Each structure stands twice: as structure tokens, then as C-alpha cells.
């Protein structure tokens, strides 16, 4: 007799491990993962079957791998779920979704993907649906000297590629490349822009006003919309600390789940249902420290890298996939059930770099209630080698935070 389902994950990062941990904890499943390389966070694990294939960036090869895998798995399982953990893998799946009918997923269209993944086009969509976003000036390699003159908002501000996850930017050979640049004066802006455009990266750059406030003003919203385009899960998180290493700058390092439901959540729900969005997505937002207004920075039409916090908050993103694609459940929207602290850094860094006194008080309360969670440390997957690599990850962060940390007042 066939088993109910199997999960196939594309990627080998913290998100991959978080999903694997959820399915192992709740369904006794060890998902199958494919990636071009094995990251340390997924080394020496017994809860996910990781397959390394350096050719996966080739569309035809990836489709061939997934279709052959589906043929094998269908002999043992009734249904299959695909979970892409990066924009690159999602783009390939979206392009070739007609060839992947053995998987239950209902993907967005390729034109939608390109719109979401390009901040210029996404901000045009935000304007249409009355979603607030920061003031932005778009630069190209041909017009940047003139366009820089249009930047009227005060320093400091942000410089970043229109899509920092694009293959063009990821593969660009840029001196001192960062995911996001903090610019303090006109001379630095011109210098950074010319350094970028003197490389092999020639796509659009965005100069964007800095929304005032430290990391505790950030918000992340993970959502899941079912195959019919109805929002079924909304999990709001308060990132209280970011990563600061240039290679991971802007990724979240510590998140408190929020049980509040601000108006921006209704606006985003209405937007997603109006465009009939399907699958997982996450929004990066920030509250201006003075006006208290919410601003949207971007949408990632896939699970967020830190999405395991949704599991800890009582609304697992992995469960939303199962309810929709395997069980066919149609329920009301699920929201966070409890306030927890999710960490991807040692607690000592949170205590050192989180400056907000009210947040620190909340942390003490959460810790007292045993509400602190780490994605990577799982009791049922804790061989000596596994624990060594996890502690090594944390030790590196303790080492580099003093070097790269920025106090964004």
C-alpha cells in the first residue's frame, strides 16, 4: 500500500533544514533535497536525504532530475510536494511547471514571478494596490550620473540591486560586494555605483530612502495561499537582529513572533487574493520610527529563509503545504498562536546588540517561559559531527559581528 506523500526540497540552507525538521517531527518523513552544493547547516544530518548535483542550474537537467525522481517516488507515495528554498530554483520550476505535473504544487505564472522578483516592477504593483513602499530612484549603467541628481531624500540611504538574488548579481565579480549598501554621502554613492557598474553586473540599481529605526522596527510576514488563491496562513514576525556579514547582510538572525494583526496584513491579504497568488511567500517590512507607518521593501514568492519561526509560533508553513496539497483542507486564515523567540545566532549576540529596553524585557519573559527556539539544534538529529558543525556556525558569528555590525539608529 502506498504511503500518503513525500516532500522534495530544492536547496541546502537553514530553510531546507527547517522544513526537514518539521516533516520529521510531525510526519516521520525524511524529505529528499537537491542542491548544487552542500552548506554546513545541512551537513551530517539524518533527517534529510541531500543529493548534490552541480548541474542543477541547467533547466533541462533539473527538470530531468525531478521528473525521473517523481517516476520513482510515485511507486511508493500517492502524492509529492516540491518546496523551493531560493528564487533561482523557484524560477526554474515556474518556467517548466507544465513538465512537473507529478507534483501537487500550483505555481504562479512566470510573468508574475518576474514582476515580484524585480523590485522596480513590484513597486509599480504596490502603487496599484495602495501598498506603501520607500521612495526609490532607479539607476541604470547608462543613466546613473544623471539619475543620482534626482536623489533628494536625506542621508543615510540604501543602495541595492533591483534583485539581489538574481544570477546576474550573485555571479557578479564586484570588489567588496554586499547585498545592501548603506550610503552616507554623495561621494560614497558615486563610488559604490561606479564600482558595481565597472564589474560584469549591468542591471538596475535602486537608491532608496532609509526608513528610520533599528532592527527592532523590522517586520517579516510569511504567508501561504492555497491552490485557489485564498490566503490560509499569515505569520507576522518581529526581527530584532539581522545578519551583518556582507555575504548574508539583511537576513534575519533573531525573530519574535507577533500575535498582533496590524492593518498592513489585511492590505497584503487583499492584494494576494486580488491577483490570485498561490503558494508560499514572505514580505519584508519596516515601521518608521517617527511616523509609525509600515513600508514594504519586497516580496519573495517562496518560503522565507527564516520561515521555521512559523512552526515555533504554532502555524507551521510546512503544515499549510500539507493541508492544501495533500489533504485539500479549506480553513480560515491561521495566525500566530504564541509569542516565541526564534534564533539563528547565539543568545549572547542578541543580548549584546539589541538595544531596545522593551524588547529585552520581552526576551526575558519568553526565555522564562521556555519559548526560545533554534532551527539547527534538534534533539533527534544530534550526532557529534552534527553538533560540531552547528556550534561552529555560531562561533563564527560571535567572531564576525563586532567587525560588521552597524547601529542603524
Can you put this structure into words, describing what you see?
With 409 residues, this protein is of the alpha/beta class. It has three domains: 3-112, Rossmann fold (3-Layer(aba) Sandwich), CATH 3.40.50; 135-209, 2-Layer Sandwich (Dna Ligase, domain 1); 215-404, ATP-grasp fold, B domain (D-amino Acid Aminotransferase, Chain A, domain 1). Helix content is 35%, strand content 22%. It has 14 helices and 16 strands. The chain has helices spanning 14-27, 59-73, 87-95, 110-117, 119-128, 144-147, 167-170, 186-197, 263-274, 308-312, 317-326, 347-353, 357-368, 384-404; strands spanning 3-10, 32-35, 49-52, 77-84, 136-139, 157-161, 181-183, 205-209, 218-225, 231-242, 252-257, 279-287, 294-300, 334-335, 341-343, 372-374. Strands 9, 10, 11, 12, 13, 14, 15 and 16 form an eight-stranded mixed sheet that branches. Strands 3-2-1-4 form a four-stranded parallel sheet. Strands 5-8-6-7 form a four-stranded antiparallel sheet, with helices on one face. Strand 12 and strand 13 (294-300) form a beta hairpin. Helix 3 packs antiparallel against helix 4 (110-117) and helix 4 crosses helix 5. The relative contact order is 0.14. The model has no long low-confidence stretch (mean pLDDT 94).
Secondary structure layout:
Elements: E1 3-10, H1 14-27, E2 32-35, E3 49-52, H2 59-73, E4 77-84, H3 87-95, H4 110-117, H5 119-128, E5 136-139, H6 144-147, E6 157-161, H7 167-170, E7 181-183, H8 186-197, E8 205-209, E9 218-225, E10 231-242, E11 252-257, H9 263-274, E12 279-287, E13 294-300, H10 308-312, H11 317-326, E14 334-335, E15 341-343, H12 347-353, H13 357-368, E16 372-374, H14 384-404
Parallel strand pairs: 1-2, 1-4, 2-3, 10-14, 15-16
Antiparallel strand pairs: 5-8, 6-7, 6-8, 9-10, 9-12, 10-11, 11-15, 12-13
